[in-house]
Amino acid sequence: MGLFSTKDTDGDNEIAFNFHFPTSKNALIIFTRNPELGKCKTRLAKTIGDEAALEIYKHLLKHTASVSETVNADKFVFYSENIKKEDIWNASHFKKKLQNGSNLGERMENAFAELLNSGYQKTIIIGSDLLDLNSELINDAFKQLNHFDYVIGPAKDGGYYLLGMKTLNPNLFKNKNWGTASVLNDTLNNLQHSTVHLLKELNDIDTFEDIKPYNQLKKYYDTHH
Description:
Elements: E1 26-32, H1 42-48, H2 50-69, E2 74-79, E3 94-98, H3 104-116, E4 122-126, H4 135-144, E5 150-154, E6 160-165, H5 183-190, E7 196-198, H6 208-211, H7 218-221
Parallel strand pairs: 1-2, 1-4, 2-3, 5-7
Antiparallel strand pairs: 4-6, 5-6
C-alpha cells in the first residue's frame, strides 16, 4: 500500500511514521486539505475569490478541530499535501498522518486499512467542511456501530460527511464518481446485504449557496461583494 512512501519531503512528514498503540477501541479519521491559497474550496472561490474561500475553509477547519477534540476516540488528521507540526490540530489530541492514494477512494481506503489493521474495532471518517457537525453526532455514530455493520452521515449534495465501519470493505472505495451526487446511493448499493444506520442529513459547504445560511461566515465574504 506504500504507507511509507511520501510525495513530499517536507521535514514534518517524518512524524507520520511514529508507531502508535491504540488507547481506545475507536479511531476517528479526519480528512483535511492543507489550507493553501487557490487550492481549497475552489467551487466557492469562483464566487467569492480565493482569499475569502481560504478564510472560510480555515474557519471550517477550526470548527472541525474543536468538535473532534471531545470525541471519545483516538483521533488522526490525514493531510492532503504535507504534515504540519504546529497548526490548529493540537498534537496532544491529534495524531498526524499523510493521505496516500491517487484518488479520494484510494486515500480513504488506505486510511481505514491502516487503522483497522492497527487494532481499532470501530473506525469512522469525517470531512472538514461541515459547520453543522458536532461531537454528539460523532459519538453517536460510534455507539451505532455496536448495533449496525456501517454508519453513514448523508450530505445534502448526494455524498456523505461521515462513514464508519468495523471491518474494511474495499468495495465502498471503488467505482465512485467522487464529488458527485451519486456517491451516497452507490455506497448504499454496495451495502444491501449489511445493516446500515443513517445519521441525519447535513449540509457540507462547497458552493456560495451552501454558505448563505451561516451568519458567522458573512464576515469573510461581505467585503468581497
